[in-house]
Amino acid sequence: MSSPFPLTPFHYLQIIDATPLVSVDLLIENSEGKFLFGKRKNKPAQGTWFIPGGRVYKNEKILDAVNRVLKDETKLECPHPRFMGVYEHIYDDNFMGIEHVNTHYIALGFSIKI
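Predicted structure:
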């Protein structure tokens, strides 16, 4: 069901300025004990190494978000990710590069072995 209130980039920036975002972070480990990292292309934290992750959408169950992000970013599936804990990321910038608006994530960490 779509919202009667379309979310423009400006509205999303207002949300980022006023509230933390809820996200999932995926610590993906292969059978050799190596972890998957990627270099961020977008703000915030552009150019830094990070694990796959993404925000949880409104009305999306957390495990559904884990599976969506995992599939979108890696094409992998994991029926039983292991919850690791709650983490925070606070960045001085935002997706639009507007000054004086930082980005605050409340991240739910999950371990995934492949």
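Summary: The first helix runs from residue 9 to 18.
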